[in-house]
Amino acid sequence: MEKTVVLYPGLAVSHCVPMMQLAAPLLEHGYAVSVALIDPAVKDDIAFGAVVSRVAASMPSVRFHTLPTVEDVPDLTQDTQFPAGYLELIRRYNERLHDFLCSMRPRSVHAVVVDSLSSEALGVVKRLGIPGYNLFTSSASVLAAFAQLPTLLAEGGTSFKELGDTPLQLFGLPPMPASHLMAELLEDPESDKYKAMMASLPRILEADGTLVNTLESLEARGVAALRDPRCVLGRVLPPVYCVGPFVGSIAVAEAKERHECLPWLDGQPDRSVVFLCFGSIGIGNHSEEQLREIAVGLDKSGHRFLWVVRAPVSDDPEKPLDPCADPDIDALLPDGFMERTNGRGLVVKLWAPQADVLRHKATGAFVTHCGWNSVLEGVTAGVPMLCWPLYAEQKMNKLFMVGDMGIAVEMVGWQHGLVKAGEVEAKVRLVMDSEEGRELRARVAANKEDAMAAWNDGGSSRVAFAHFLADVASQQDRACTREGMGLSDA
């Protein structure tokens, strides 16, 4: 009988790409891989659809199945609908996923791996008696925090929002200001956003195990917390498999012309360029004032830079700007900035090939929004980082990057709503010129070596993946035994 693993990715590029990269080692170990997809058109995300198309082209042995559409799909185009609308969408597709798994003869499906945003689907998988696993696309430290949050306020009536900057005492993690939690957790406890988020967190722990896109050596403290019975008292957490880093984009079959920034980087000295890039989806774009402060700081720093600029946010809620609109660089940046920095700086509109830029020998520092995929790309490239979190779990990532990991310094002005030019100048010089910056670079270099070795023979991630496959096989053997005894749960 063919051994099959079904992947069920989330509707976000940052979640889908690591899930698709999981397909390669599964194929290598003799598993057939099927991908169950919610129609990308549901989210109206061109980038997500493009990723799916690239995967299909570059991995012809992976089978894709788009689940039949459901009626009355929640509107996911508005930020106000997350996460409640997204979780409702997953619930509505549960029956479609159930029918798809049944059509595959459930016992031929050895495991289903669902995106952590789609953990609602684990109930379907369990009812069919199929081992179900999560792929957690953020850090193990964030997972350890998520595991503990549902019970943290159980005895008191205080909300996370009311706690403000009061540090949360989480087992195995450094003290975390409550204000660093995801925005949905800082809503009114009676709001749909808060209720949906708090209801979703315990479901992550209902899996048979969790694959985490991380390196165990990078997050030794967070991983140890997840494996300690004291993490969530009275509950044994499922196994954690650190199988990262899954970084970069999915391979494209045909070669494409190099982005304009790469030939420019070719002409710069080694490790001389500061790269500023704040994500590709437009959430949390900077204001016009903030863009000018960045420009002045870069100008005064005297260092070379490559800066990806997106259209600014609008102060007028009745006239919102398209975050993916083409920015008017001349109007947004200070007079004379482009002329003064000509030759040592390059401003790119909207997008740059981040992974390629970070791997380039000219790149010496990375100013990042602390999205986990970006963090891993910085680690695997051996580039020290300056943290500027904007949304989602990025404030939590920042805390671990600066503290436990020691791979970054923080632009603290974000906490006050504006990083001023003086801080931009000072932090760039700290990382590029100072002894502290050299120590930071050395720590990142050590992590890069660990990342490069992780998937080699005997490497930590390859060993963890082998443990995952052994557990899948063991679960399948037990299921077959139960079926033979007439005890199947399917």
UniProtKB/TrEMBL annotation:
<comment type="similarity">
    <text>Belongs to the UDP-glycosyltransferase family.</text>
</comment>
<dbReference type="InterPro" id="IPR035595">
    <property type="entry name" value="UDP_glycos_trans_CS"/>
</dbReference>
<dbReference type="GO" id="GO:0035251">
    <property type="term" value="F:UDP-glucosyltransferase activity"/>
</dbReference>
<dbReference type="Pfam" id="PF00201">
    <property type="entry name" value="UDPGT"/>
</dbReference>
<protein>
    <recommendedName>
        <fullName>Glycosyltransferase</fullName>
        <ecNumber>2.4.1.-</ecNumber>
    </recommendedName>
</protein>
<dbReference type="InterPro" id="IPR050481">
    <property type="entry name" value="UDP-glycosyltransf_plant"/>
</dbReference>
<keyword id="KW-0808">Transferase</keyword>
<keyword id="KW-0328">Glycosyltransferase</keyword>
<dbReference type="InterPro" id="IPR002213">
    <property type="entry name" value="UDP_glucos_trans"/>
</dbReference>
<dbReference type="GO" id="GO:0016757">
    <property type="term" value="F:glycosyltransferase activity"/>
</dbReference>
